[in-house]
Design brief:
With 193 residues, the protein is an all-alpha fold. Helix content is 69%, strand content 0%. The longest helix has 25 residues, at 160-184.
Amino acid sequence: MLRVKDGDMDAFELLVERYKRPVINFIFRTLKDATEAEDLAQNVFVQVHKSAHRYKVTAKFTTWLFTIARNLTLNEIRRRTRHPASSMDAAHPEFDDQPIRQYEDNRTASPPDATLSGELEDKIAEAVAALPENQRTAMLLCQQGDVSYEDISSIIGCTLSATKSLIHRARETLKQQLKPYLRTGAWREGAQH
């Protein structure tokens, strides 16, 4: 990043290449929209480039990077809340009586195990999405693997002990939410057993 600060575009390209996928994954786990995650990740790196002259080595680069990603993601969530997307069907009332067709994807055959695995991943993602924002962000950053608890606490702006507590509470909540599903294979909204 110090080379980027000095105007080295090759160094910037290396940063983008190295951190693009972790940033996209982090954003996607929050927004659940792959295209939006890619667009927002691009904005993260635009912001990194625009802010390069202000970069100071006070923490790891990833702390600074994921702080930018978190802030832009939160801004996007706020924007969506203020300006929810309207349904395309609402703009065309003549389609109200027509059934919605779904087409089978014949490109790949998925065995039952893959279906169950995909369903479980969906349930986990749903449970993570229902966590309070600080718990969700801490948990998602923790899952990145290369982001330390100290870095997470800097990114979300709380103490190290509070960060550990957020991650612990998030894990306990997820365990409680997913336990009934793992036992029975049936998903119940708001299950707290």
